[in-house]
Amino acid sequence: NNVSLSVTDVNGNVANCSASVNVEDILGPTIICLDVVVDFNGEEMISVFIDELYDANASFDNCSPITLLTSDQTVTCDQIGEVITVSVEGSDDAGNVSTCSANITVGGLPCDWTNTNGIGCDGDNNASFDTNTETFTLTSDECSPSFPYISDNQGFIYQEFCGEGYIKALVTNVNGNGFAGVEVRNSLDPNSKKIAIGTNKVNRIIRMARVIEGYPAWPQEVFSLDKFWVKIERSGSYFRALASTDDINYIPYLFQVISMDECTKVGLFVYSKLPGTTVTADFTNVEVVEGTPFFEANANEVEMSTSITSTLNVGLSPNPAKDELRIDLHSLIAQDVSIRIYNINGQLMTNRQIDYVENATEIIAIDRFPAGTYYVHVKTAQQQQTLKLVKQ
Asked: Confidence band (pLDDT; 50, 70, 90) for 311?
């Protein structure tokens, strides 16, 4: 800018001059950064836009608008557990540059894992992963399966699984009256075919299978101490659910033939036994391994592992039992059924023939049975099922 200057002395003499004033902006803008949290839920990568990393309202320049020089950031699921520091740069029209540091905290589930927010549940089901301890934590809110167990109601996280192999996990905590474990299911539909095994982390193993979509998946409780490792193996249409105290010696609790798709959903589940309540479970040592099938079980293994040998869905309750046993025959209405109970030595204890099933529940008195282990064999004209019963 040109400025004219006039000077007068005491005698009235006047002198004039012109000056040129150059105005320069030497102050950089004030950039205020923001910290953000990114949670992964099945994604491989997530874009963090630069606009999310600085506070546009609090940032300012004394002369001109701010132009951001930093590009959008890409975060991958391999970075879960990390805090990524990004230098955000901004300039004014004079070319002055200022910076600030923004932190991106990367959380959520590891690569390939997705939280369904519950299968058949109305509540809020959360899932998280601690990278330091490699612990999955699942919370089931208002998820509780109910009779006749045609539709599932549970918290569930999963990954896609194709072919043969296994999933296993160690359940380290179950906070609340419920069960947690591993599961293989054909789809995320609540009526999907599935097989599952879990624990209440006290003294019960839970096992269940749905061999036909929309049929009951009766939860069968078995008394068991210290078996908190749970595992499901797949070999073609053969599935085997096992539990262990040490991840070395596994005991089969269920052998099931299920015609599932080549690619399924394998994962971790948690649910409450009491409607309207919340259960939280922790899992460590989670492994999903493809391509290592087990050998097809022989007939003796099937029987001794309390396997379901066909497509029946019969359930026992309570189990262990003391005075009477209730047998769920919901899926066998209008069929001819024979029920035989054997002791562990193969001696026949009870033989009941039902020519036409009318009631969903058959009650058998077992108060005179000695305490011990028994096998309940249910048979129709084409199918049969053997279940393990503990008499207290």
From this structure: very low
**Residue 303 · residue 377 · CB < 8 Å:** no
CA distance 353 to 169: 41
Q: Is 229 in contact with 243 (CB distance < 8 Å)? A: yes
Rounded Cα distance between 307 and 281, Å, is: 27
Cis ω for the linkage preceding 320 (within 30 of 0): yes
pLDDT digits (tens, 9 = 90+) for 345-354: 778 899 999 9
13-36 in b/e form (b: 16+ CB < 10 A) is eeeeeeeeeeeeeeebbebebeeb
The pTM assigned to this predicted structure is 0.71
3-state secondary structure (DSSP) of residue 292: coil
Question: 176 Cβ partners below 8 Å, 6+ apart?
Answer: 272, 277, 278, 279, 280
Which tens digit of pLDDT belongs to each residue from 129-165? 999 999 999 999 889 998 778 899 999 999 999 999 9
Strands 155-162 and 114-115: antiparallel
Pick the most confident of 232-236, 265-269, 275-279.
265-269
Between the alpha carbon of residue 107 and those of residues 20, 38, 76, 131, 391, the distances in Å are 59, 6, 11, 9, 47
Which residue shows structure tokens 């003499």? 13
Judged by DSSP in three states, 251 sits in strand
The CA distance from 193 to 216, in Å, is 10
User: Beta strands of 21-154 (E only): which ranges?
Assistant: 36-40, 45-48, 67-68, 73-76, 83-91, 97-108, 114-115, 126-130, 135-141
Residue 389, both tokens:
């019963």
Written as six digits, the tokens of 352 are 């009941």
pLDDT digits (tens, 9 = 90+) for 351-386: 999 988 888 889 999 999 999 988 888 888 777 777
Residue (of 160, 115, 105) closest to 136 by Cα position: 115
Q: Contact 270/178 with Cβ under 8 angstroms?
A: yes
User: Among the residues of 184-341, which ranges form H helices?
Assistant: 299-304
8-state DSSP, 191:
T
Helix (H, G, I), strand (E, B) or coil at 300: helix
Q: How far apart are CA 230 and CA 243, in angstroms?
A: 4
